[in-house]
Structures are given as structure tokens and as C-alpha cells.
């Protein structure tokens, strides 16, 4: 009995580490596509930047959760997690392109919470849709 529990704990630890690594990679990718330094803005008290980063983290976690529960192997979960991350990042890029009259990155850098909330809602909306598609 103890062997099964130990194996289950090891398996849970492995899935957790893999998901945390994917979460970190997703955050790096999202950081790379934004025209401002997320963490510098947050450390300077920019609430708009914090809203977007928090929504990104929740969105990616939601996608990874569904990648884990919707797949039997860790390889499948990684593949679908990466697909979900790329779709979410793509939606953020499309949002930038679809709003040429508003420079999203600049508005967030300026601390525009209204723009940040719309960007956050878009990230979460996309994550919900993608989560349903991959699970």
C-alpha cells in the first residue's frame, strides 16, 4: 500500500514540476511579447501591469489544469498545454493587432486599468475556451 502511495506522490510531484515549468515558460513568452518590462512596472506600483500579469498567470494555470485532467500521459498533457499556451499568447497578439487605435502595451505602461481589465478579460476568456477545447 505504501508503494502505491509513494508512486502517486512521485507522479503528482512530476506533473506539478512539469506544469510549473510550462507556467514559467508561458510567463517568459508573454513577458517577451509585451513592449514593457512587466516586473519593473509592477515593482513601480503599476496596477494595470499587475492586472494583466495576474490574468495571464490564472489563464495559463487554467489551461494547464485542463491539459492535465484531460490527458492520460504527461507527454499528451505537455503537448496540449503548449498548444493552449500558444493559442492564448496568439489571442493577446491578435488583440493588439485588432485595436490599432489603442496601443495596448503603451496604455498598460501608462497605468490604464481600463485597458488592463479588457486585456485580462480577453486572456481569461481565451483560457476558458481553450480549456474546453483541450480537455
UniProtKB/TrEMBL annotation:
Q: How does it sit in the membrane?
A: Multi-pass membrane protein
Is Transmembrane helix one of the keywords UniProt gives this record?
yes
Annotated keywords: Cell membrane, Membrane, Transmembrane, Transmembrane helix
Keyword Glycosyltransferase among record annotations: no
Can you say where in the cell this protein is located? Cell membrane
GO cellular component, as recorded: plasma membrane
Q: Supply the InterPro entries for this chain.
A: DUF350 (IPR007140)
Residues annotated as transmembrane: 12-33, 45-68, 74-95, 115-134
Major localization class: membrane
The similarity annotation says:
Belongs to the UPF0719 family.
Q: What is this protein called?
A: Putative membrane protein
Amino acid at each position: 500500500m505504501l508503494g502505491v502511495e509513494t508512486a502517486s506522490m512521485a507522479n503528482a510531484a512530476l506533473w506539478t514540476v512539469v506544469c510549473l515549468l510550462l507556467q514559467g515558460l508561458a510567463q517568459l513568452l508573454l513577458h517577451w511579447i509585451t513592449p514593457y518590462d512587466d516586473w519593473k512596472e509592477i515593482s513601480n506600483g503599476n496596477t494595470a501591469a499587475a492586472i494583466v500579469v495576474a490574468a495571464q498567470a490564472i489563464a495559463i494555470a487554467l489551461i494547464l489544469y485542463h491539459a492535465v485532467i484531460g490527458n492520460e500521459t504527461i507527454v499528451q498533457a505537455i503537448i496540449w498545454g503548449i498548444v493552449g499556451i500558444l493559442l492564448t499568447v496568439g489571442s493577446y497578439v491578435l488583440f493588439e493587432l485588432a485595436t490599432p487605435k489603442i496601443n495596448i502595451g503603451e496604455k498598460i505602461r501608462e497605468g490604464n486599468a481600463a485597458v488592463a481589465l479588457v486585456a485580462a478579460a480577453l486572456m481569461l476568456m481565451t483560457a476558458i475556451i481553450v480549456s474546453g477545447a483541450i480537455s
